[in-house]
Amino acid sequence: MTTIETVRGPVAAEDLGVTLTHEHIFTKNPEIEQQWPDPEWEGEEPMIAKAVAVFQTLKAKGIDTVVDLTVPGLGRYIPRIQKVAAATDVNIVVGTGFYTFKDLPTFFNTHGPGLMVDGPEPLTEFFIRDITEGIGDTGVKAQLIKIATDEYGITEGVGRVMSAAAAAHHETGRTISTHTHVEHFTGRDQQAFFRNAGVPLEHVLIGHCGDSTDLDYLKEIMDNGSTIGLDRFGMEQVLRDSDRIDMLVQLVEEGYEDRLTLSHDAGVFSINTPPSWRSRVAPNWHHANISDNILPAIRERGVSEASISQMMVTNAARVLTGRK
Ligand SMILES: [Zn+2]
């Protein structure tokens, strides 16, 4: 039996159910917030209660599992997530990795092969430790490996993260899940990098592909073996949901349903795009948008229950399983 690590412990892959594959709960920046608290962070207990309420609502709408890809660089803090997980029926899966578009924090300038504090690449050790031993002293294990490239491409710092992700994949078999910038087609560079690093592209989930309306680009990424994320429903400041729906329907009609995963990249709180900004600029960017708006819309367009289940249950479980 294949089991998937969740915040509450292992769950059989076939029991994950309907899964949102790329979400966030709390995106924070402890160093900034310790000096300059964000007025929209209402405090630990109120924000945890808010997240629990969101997750209980999701469960009632048929969502069974949520993948929280808030990795270091985005303020990952597992004890807070454990409190949410303890009070909801939704499975929460977390990741390791590092989120940066350009540079790594100063610690990594002095630690690593050939650097001042010479030694093995700490990122590789950290990623593998999160997966095999657990995160800090929480006992919670990471299931996926997250990396990001954006408009700056594969900088020196991002390249170190990606090399460490490839090494952690080879060691653990876990899927690498990515952030991309579709205007720069960074999914292509990611696939080339990981192919060179010997990572089978079926074990790389190229994220944020739903921001694109370039069918040829998306099909190229999938034809190379990767599953893609139509994972930003509601992020209408980037692309309207009507366009995202058109792309989804088109790809299903062309037979790509076994390569698609659905999610929102939403959050309960983000210091980077705070709740008041989100409700003003992108009011549908929340964790229930797929359940409330997207699924009814694609059903109306002829997408079958079997296709929805393929995307939200089967493909999600396959990605979360990684190499058997
Ligand atoms: Zn994200």
UniProtKB/TrEMBL annotation:
Cofactor note: Binds 2 divalent metal cations per subunit.
Binding site for Zn(2+) 1: 22, 24, 146, 265
Cofactor(s) this protein requires: a divalent metal cation
SUPFAM superfamilies registered for this protein in UniProt: Metallo-dependent hydrolases
Record bears the keyword Metal-binding: yes
Binding residue positions for Zn(2+) 2: 146, 179, 208
UniProt GO molecular function: hydrolase activity, acting on ester bonds; zinc ion binding
UniProt KW Magnesium keyword: no
Pfam families: PTE
Keywords: Hydrolase, Metal-binding
Signal peptide range: none
Residues bearing the modification N6-carboxylysine: 146
Similarity comment: family membership: Belongs to the metallo-dependent hydrolases superfamily. Phosphotriesterase family.
Protein name, as recorded: Phosphotriesterase-related protein
Gene source species: Subtercola boreus
Lineage: Bacteria, Bacillati, Actinomycetota, Actinomycetes, Micrococcales
